Amino acid sequence: MKVRRTTLITVGCLATLVGLGLSRKFSFEADYWLISLLPLLALLWRKNIASLFLVATLGLTVGLWRGTAYMSHVYDIQDLSGQRVTMIMDAKTDSVYGNGSQLEFTANNAKVLEPYQQELKGNTRVSGFGVPMVHRGDQLEIKGKLYPSRGSNQARISYAQLSKIASDTSWLNGLTRKFAAGMYNALPEPQASLGLGILIGQRSNLPDYTLLAMSVVGLTHIIAVSGYNLTIIVRGVSRVKRVFGSKFQRLIISLALIGIFVLITGFSASIVRAALIAGLGLWAWYYGRQLRAVLALSLVAAITGLFNPFYVWSDIGWYLSFLAFFGVLIMAPLIATWIFKKREPRGLTQILFETLAAYVMTLPLIMFIFGKMSVVALVANLLVVPLVPFAMLFSAITGIAGMINPAFSAWLAIPAKLLLTYILDVAYWLSDLSFSQVLTELTTVQMVVMYGIIGFFVAVLATRKQRSPSSKT
Fold first, then answer.
1. In this structure, are 406 and 374 located in the same domain?
2. What's the pLDDT score for residue 228?
3. CA distance 220 to 211
């Protein structure tokens, strides 16, 4: 029985992720084990069941080996738990005012000076006093008690004493700050912060009531840099064929815009994952090949997981992003094919299926972690998502105009102001409904059962598609 090369790669990647997950509970020194498996690599060219078993074993071994080695960084944080530390760190985000008028920001590249010298991996959420403002890229000395954390941040320090060692001199970060200032020059709040959130994911200045409203109605994803932003950019380039006539020109322009977008957003984990998937899709499109979505998702998940096992161990955003990608890239096309047969849906219909699929895929995990479910999310996304590309375009024009000519920018900001006000009104109106959100919790077993049902449904649709006459022609 022959096994496809894509199947071998997919199984190897999934096995690697399983190994990374198991390494949190089981240590594994794989050096000699890997060496003993090397002679068996000759079996891969046969592409049979033995090859499949070998790939799965190799992936599991690599995941366990990488995870076991990375666990030392977890122990480093745990050893410092509750202790007062002095660290030098780089700010990863601009600061905002949080609880108790503290400056809050995320930092990384930690070098512990006291109680002993040590480098720490991962992100740290810092809250403290001592400087008027912290910008992304600033280097600071931080003194305070460190505690382990969960989620995208591996540690936290509250009520820290902050001292700035060096200010950021990056021209790119400076340009981003000037662009943000231009947006605030041209638009009132909270429209200005919403525009920055939609365009580059900078949502730290949005009022708490706005963030709450968008969370209740399921619109938080439009103010978080993600694959949707890149999809808009790539689709926009592909449609201006009169300007970029050849496939090569559209490929280069798309890759350049993706690179610029990643630089501006500061290499956030979500946008890097989206950029990798977008890059694979562009590569397949340029060479006239069909990219298998399962292969792309598993490959990017394995790459990012091996690079930073903290994603697999504790980053809920990592899981939500891949679940949403699965819904948009795999589930939505299968449902559309099942309903419309040969005709592909477009416009609002396509958005409806993609939104529904992404919502279904992320809902069990959201209910398990946060204990809530948005009833109006589908309606809110249908009312807002089709306008997001225009909101991005007009917000970009507004920010640039505010940088160049603040006095005249208010006139150019009118389209952006109207769109952003409409989005805010939809979020506020729907969130005020008494039934907009239901509080409910899932147990681990219930979540697994729900994903099992969803997986069975997707497998049935995939089987029907393979057996349909249109898929064989």
1. yes
2. 62
3. 7
Is-cis flag, bond preceding 469, omega within 30?
Answer: no
**pLDDT tens profile 84-114:** 999 999 998 888 887 778 899 999 999 999 9
Angle between helical axes of 227-239 and 388-404 (0-180°, round to 10): 90
Residue finishing a domain among 138, 168, 198: 168
Number of folded domains in the chain?
3
State the DSSP H helix or E strand holding residue 339, giving kind and residue range, or none if neither.
Answer: helix 332-340
| Structural domain containing residue 302 | 174-472
Whether the CB-CB separation of 133 and 121 falls below 8 Å is answered with no
Q: Are 161 and 184 within one domain?
A: no
Q: Are residues 315 and 464 in the same domain?
A: yes
pLDDT at 423: 94
Task: Indicate if 105 and 41 belong to the same structural domain.
Answer: no
* pLDDT for 298: 92
pLDDT band at 303 (very low <50, low <70, confident <90, very high): very high
Q: Which amino acid is at 252?
A: I
pLDDT value of residue 146? 95
> Is there a contact between 106 and 153 (Cβ–Cβ < 8 Å)?
yes
Q: Judge if 132 and 117 occupy the same domain.
A: yes
Provide the phi-psi class of 110: left if phi over 0, else alpha when psi is between -120 and 50, else beta.
beta
Contact 218, 384 (CB under 8 A): no
DSSP symbol at 328? I
pLDDT tens string 409-455: 888 899 999 999 999 999 999 999 988 888 888 889 999 999 999 99
For residue 17, CA distances in Å to 302, 308, 436 come to 6, 12, 36
CB 127 within 8 A of CB 159: yes
From 138, 153, 168, the end of a domain falls on 168
d(CA 192, CA 401): 13
**What is the pLDDT at residue 473?**
42
Report the alpha-carbon distance of residue 256 to residue 166 in Å, rounded.
30
For every residue of 367-436, DSSP letters joined together read HHHH-EEESSHHHHHHHHGGGHHHHHHHHHHHHHHHHH-HHHHHHHTHHHHHHHHHHHHHHHHHHTSTTS
Judge if 185 and 244 occupy the same domain.
Answer: yes
Burial class of 37 by CB neighbour count within 10 A (0 to 12, 13 to 18, 19+):
middle
Residues 6-63 have pLDDT tens digits of: 888 899 999 999 999 999 888 777 666 666 666 666 566 666 777 788 888 888 988 9
